[in-house]
User: What shape does this take?
Amino acid sequence: MSTRTSQNRSPEDAPRVTTRTLQDMKASGINIAMLTAYDYTSARILDAAGVDVILVGDSASNVMAGHETTLPITLDQMVYHAQCVVRGVHRALVVVDLPFGSYQGNTKEALSSAVRVMKESGAHAVKVEGGRSIVPTVERILEAGIPVMGHLGLTPQSIYRFGSYQVRARDEVEAEELREDAVRLEQAGVFGIVLEKIPADLAADVTASISVPTIGIGAGGQCDGQVLVTHDALGLTTDFNPRFVRRYAQLDQQIGEHVQQYIADVRSGDFPSPDESY
Ligand code: KIV
Assistant: This one.
């Protein structure tokens, strides 16, 4: 019989975070920590650090591939990123964005995209952007037993319709629409909703009015959890500075300095030393 206690548990046997765990966290008032990852090594680090949810975001289109928007990334590419992440995760819930064009056409297409992600990557859930218009899609994916997360407010896949990355739902008409969308998504069965770049008071209202957790990004401190793009939080991206990003490190500088040191060591012949040679 195992004698391990919770104190000496390794990440391999820590209890998995499930959609139920997130629901319980909301009920207990424990804030949910979510971050993005797109590769095995980062996913391992975030998981071992104890992040609750890892989002394989279509922001990979920006931070991994260098595109201006999230629109170009393909389903094949999202499946690849999700496979890499899943291999590095033992505890966190892994949620994968369905990319632009893989679910908007009709519910059958949406279901087959979601099934591909789940079957080929081993991820635990998918995320889709949109309000009431996405409800039949959410229902169809859920009927297949796949957990779905919603995403309201600034939905980057619709950037060309919005025309800018400004804060959404500042006026009462759009705010009311968003409140109703959140309720409809909840009724459709989503296990959580990302609220992106909306006024903090509105996010607080929505959070209080639905039973599933809200995860904010630029949506104030009253959401049930927070998400950031890891590359932004760690200062790997330098060209994206919205006020909602808190930079926990300036890794671009640190990496640059270490790389300069490596170059200097190679130039001077200091690397490799006899100890680093066979
Ligand atoms: O793609 C992404 O990283 C996201 C987050 C910004 C929520 O959707």
Notes: The pocket of 3-methyl-2-oxobutanoic acid is lined by residues 36, 55, 57-59, 97, 194, 196, 217, 227, 229 (CB under 6 Å). Residues 265 and 273 are 10 Å apart (CA to CA).
